[in-house]
Design goal:
heterodimer; A: mainly alpha; Sodium/glucose cotransporter; two-stranded antiparallel sheet; 4 strands; 2% strand; B: mainly alpha; 2 helices
């Protein structure tokens, strides 16, 4: 990744954003009087703000980068993560689940589990969630610091208390301290307000990139024509990149995701999406901060409107990049993986010192120097050009960059920002990217400090202290959360494989969680023991499923597993076409296992809560909310149906 | 919670919009033009209008 040359105007935009974010924190500080103000916004925020924060909390830079990457790799099918994997779950949360979360007056999702079941289920959920948010925050900050260190032209170093700090360390600490300052001052409200700021920043920062990209490829239809070439070049039907459903219905071998219809609809569309959007406290916390029940129920509905059209902002850039690759006159390539300048220097030497008549030997020498495979045809044309007219080292380096056959799809969005954004607009787009990283950390830290204070500290160590006490515990938990996030960022930068294992384990924990919530909310016979053991059984079944399955690309010629991280380390019962398919099936399997176990154990164990105690916590025992005081067009059920119809129409348009 | 979020949003985008608009009017070199469009000027106006609309909403919502 070449460093970007920033101008004064770019720095001015970045500084303006940071100043306003800190200003919001400082302004809100005077309103932070109680632990409820700090940790739950005292349930005072209007719908449009919580709605935009609800979507922004999920719109971290990892999503911006990842969705553009998937757009290039899979085309419009990536929109399934929105139109199948988000909208239905958000509507379900609004219509059916928010009345219990908000009406029970629980301050967090784990606290709802305590009210519905018992302390064991709460402890398991809150501990897993607290650890998960710290790692998620650390991963986000690691990505931000790496991006800044590679992107910005300054190389910095400092010695602090005998520790040597490089560019990565300085960017990591500066961005973490900015987040700490505004969250410590303004609490959850500050995080929610900056998420709204970030939402507009992302929309207004990336919209010009999409417009200029589409203009460059000749418009939507021209892009689709180019993507048909991409599909046929990769051995798929011509519409594999431009149709969302036809390649999926044709089967896992006929779409670039390698996913079948059942895995997509049940694994992603039900288990994973409902498990995330309906039970993850990070997003549900935004709705729980709303000023009244109607605002809380409308929060996910407000969020689902931009969520529905977001594919055009975050996926289309990836499709533009894939289309540009088929247009030689555009001089664009999806960036290759990062190669150090030392390796480039070695490869330039290899190019200059190897006999140009022996292209095979030259290609091999360059492969070894770069540590990447290069395209022999490009090397041959470079060798010929060098014979005709001596190439400079810089020209050779540029040629080698273009000859690397592997693509780093995560670099797509930044490469388009660099291609289309002049100084000024560049500052806006980069600030949007940085804002999303920072609010990703702030969102995780505010969820962490609430769960730590109420569900871990108050519930287990100090039940009857003053509100002032919990207010200060919340503040210290914020500092602790930031420090732990920084530690997690360093851990992520040092131990990539360990992070993969941690994320894998969290995948095991999350997959069966929705079964616990679904049965808890909609079946009064579910017992605390059934829920607790069912959840554990679901986690165990996830691990067993992973140990018995892998992906086809992970098997060598004799059928042995190459990388145990991709499963199959006990025995390979099934090999899936892709990791995505394996993840979707794992989620489906774990959900069914947890569901069956919870029902079975509940039927043979005694209920510990009476019907009266479960009022407001279980669907059949709770008086239905009467929306008669609202006009029919403002009722959540009506709005939900309208949004669902819009979502179905979008699916048909891109069938 | 005391602070109307439309004030900071409006102020920030008005400021950034004004910066981009002025920059787009002054700097018209090749590397400031993307695909033949003075995008800084055009997008600066868009941000300016958005920022002022937010400020208007905050002012009338006092």
């Amino acid at each position: 990744m070449q460093p970007i040359q920033l101008h004064h105007i770019d720095y001015a935009i970045l500084i303006a954003y940071v100043a306003f974010v800190l200003g919001i924190g400082w302004t809100l500080a005077r309103y932070m009087k109680t632990s409820a103000d700090f940790l739950t916004s005292a349930r005072s925020i209007p719908t449009w703000v919580t709605g935009l924060a609800f979507i922004s909390a999920n719109l971290g830079a990892l999503e911006l980068v990842g969705m553009a990457a998937s757009g290039a790799k899979y085309g419009i099918s990536t929109a399934h993560f929105y139109w199948v994997g988000a909208i239905p779950a958000m509507i379900f949360l609004a219509v059916f689940m928010m009345p219990f979360y908000y009406g029970s007056k629980a301050r967090s999702v784990p606290e709802y589990l305590k009210m519905r079941f018992d302390g064991r289920v709460r402890l398991l959920n809150s501990f897993a969630f607290a650890v998960m948010t710290i790692f998620a925050s650390g991963i986000s900050m690691n990505a931000l610091a790496k991006l800044l260190a590679n992107l910005l032209p300054w190389q910095m170093s400092l010695n602090v208390l005998g520790f040597h700090l490089g560019s990565y360390d300085i960017y990591l600490w500066i961005s973490s301290i900015i987040v700490l300052l505004y969250v410590l001052k303004g609490g959850l409200t500050s995080a929610i307000y900056t998420e709204v700021l970030q939402f507009f920043m992302i929309v207004l920062g990336f919209a010009p990139v999409v417009y200029l990209g589409l203009k460059d490829v000749g418009g939507w239809h021209s892009m689709n024509n180019s993507l048909q070439t991409v599909a046929t070049n990769n051995g798929y039907a011509a519409d594999a990149w431009t149709s969302a459903w036809k390649p999926l219905i044709a089967g896992s071998a006929h779409n670039p995701m390698g996913v079948d219809l059942f895995a997509m609809l049940f694994g992603l569309g039900f288990v994973l999406s409902f498990g995330y959007w309906c039970t993850n406290f990070l997003v549900v916390q935004r709705a729980m901060a709303a000023k009244n029940m109607a605002a809380a129920r409308n929060t996910p509905l407000v969020a689902s409107v931009p969520k529905m059209v977001f594919p055009f902002l975050v996926i289309v850039p990836g499709m533009i990049a894939a289309a540009l690759m088929t247009m030689p006159d555009k001089h664009y390539r999806i960036p290759p993986p990062l190669v150090s300048s030392e390796n480039y220097a070695k490869a330039v030497d290899a190019f200059k010192t190897t006999n140009p008549a022996n292209t095979e030997k030259m290609t091999q020498a360059i492969d070894e120097a770069l540590g990447k495979n290069v395209d022999p045809a490009i090397i041959l044309s470079m060798a010929r050009a060098n014979l005709d007219n001596k190439l400079s080292d810089e020209q050779i380096k540029q040629g080698l960059y273009n000859s690397i056959t592997e693509n780093d799809y995560d670099g797509v969005i930044l490469s388009l920002v660099k291609k289309y954004c002049p100084p000024g607009l560049l500052g806006l787009a980069l600030t949007a990217l940085l804002a999303s990283f920072m609010s990703g950390m702030a969102g995780n830290v505010t969820a962490f400090n609430t769960v730590f204070t109420y569900d871990l500290y108050q519930a287990n160590f100090a039940k009857n202290k003053s509100d002032k006490h919990y207010f200060w515990v919340g503040k210290f938990a914020t500092i602790g959360g930031i420090v732990l996030s920084i530690a997690a960022a360093y851990f992520a930068s040092q131990y990539n494989n360990a992070m993969d294992i941690i994320q894998l384990v969290f995948g095991f924990v999350n997959a069966p969680l929705f079964a616990t919530f679904l049965l808890g909310m909609f079946w009064k016979r579910t017992t605390a023991t059934g829920a607790f053991l069912g959840l554990f059984g679901g986690i165990g079944s996830s691990a067993i499923f992973h140990a018995l399955t892998t992906v086809k690309s992970n098997l060598d010629a004799s059928g042995h597993v190459v990388n145990v991280m991709k499963g199959g380390y006990i025995h390979v019962v099934t090999a899936f076409p892709s990791e995505m398919a394996q993840n979707f099936w794992l989620a489906a399997f774990a959900f069914i296992a947890a569901f069956v176990l919870t029902v079975g154990i509940s039927l043979v164990t005694k209920r510990t809560k009476t019907d009266a105690e479960l009022k407001g916590l279980v669907y059949s025992l709770t008086p239905k909310i009467v929306d008669n005081n609202q006009p029919w067009y403002q009722r959540p059920a009506v709005l939900g149906i309208v949004l669902l119809i819009c979502c179905v129409i979008l699916n048909f348009i891109f069938w | 919670m005391g602070l109307d979020i439309r004030w900071p949003i409006g102020l920030m985008f008005t400021l950034i919009g004004a910066l981009l608009t002025v920059y787009g009017m002054i700097v018209k070199s090749d590397n400031a033009i993307s695909l033949g469009i003075n995008i800084n000027f055009i997008w600066g106006i868009v941000l300016l209008v958005f920022g002022l609309a937010m400020l208007g909403g905050a002012f009338y919502g006092r």
